[in-house]
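Many introductory courses stop at the sequence. We go one step further.
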Amino acid sequence: QVQLVESGGGLVQAGGSLRLSCAYSGSLFNARTMGWYRQAPGKQRELVATIGPGGGRYYGEFVEGRFTISRDNAQQTVYLQMNSLKPGDTAVYFCWSSASVWGQGTQVTVSA
């Protein structure tokens, strides 16, 4: 049974940085596509970034080079490095696995 646990959210000023982590427990991590989504109040959940088993990456258009997704297969962990944060990035960030599993989410708040 796959479980995902996010960490690293918090409050940061505009222009600052945060690094989110997603710890994966279960089997077949190396074979999974992993990703990050986010959901702001009153808005639909949207894709932030994904990373495939071979390291191929995809980003939502709004990222504009500010975020980097990475994975550590030995640690079974996925990271999202977020730089140049904007107030519009405020949301709950969810980790996702192609095993159709979601994490519980971690709050990111960016103050102006």
